[in-house]
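Incident log, entry 3
Record: DUF1285 domain-containing protein (216 residues)
Problem: checksum mismatch between cached and fresh output.
Input:
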Amino acid sequence: MNPAAILTRLGDRAGKDGPLPPVETWHPEHCGEMDLVIRADGRWVHEGTPIGRARLVHMLSRVMRREPDGSYCLVTPAEKVTIQVEDRPFLAVDCSRVESEPGQTPLGQTQPGQTALGEAEPQPQPDIWQLVTDQGDIVRLEGDTRLTLSETPDGLWLPEAPVRFGLAARLHRNLYYRLLEEAEMRELDNGDQALGFMSDGHWQMLGVLSARDLDT
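Fresh output:
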């Protein structure tokens, strides 16, 4: 099977625009492996040749998911094929800061800054950072969606962000350095120094400097 055949079977359901196909609800028969590798640098390589059609890559990415055993696959309602991923299937390539709307306190509750009429004065809310992946996904770092550190094929521990269907995005090198400019340091219980920043009031980890390396 070749990548284009998958899209032919899906028809309009793999369209570039509109909602994502509900791949989490599809449970077809496993049809083996496809010679398709997503390289750590974001290239999609089929049978040793990079796929040069950005639209084809994007549409395939919309029908990809990660299985409970950690494997990656492309899915249609009728079949499922396993593919290989060197590191993470997506790269986070851009970011922006989104200002939250000021919160309000319900009427009848007394809070600092509350007016005589019972209406709370708008209180500043924590900013939220959002990432954009190489396939156009927007990932807001809020709630339980946070950066975590994981090991790369090169043995480095670098940030990743959850995207969808069990898939994650590794921070592109350029974006990583941009976010380092926003980073602050926090000392951990073991004396190591953590690098990160705040989003939605939660700590977003970018890296760790060991106390041993800091002493040298």
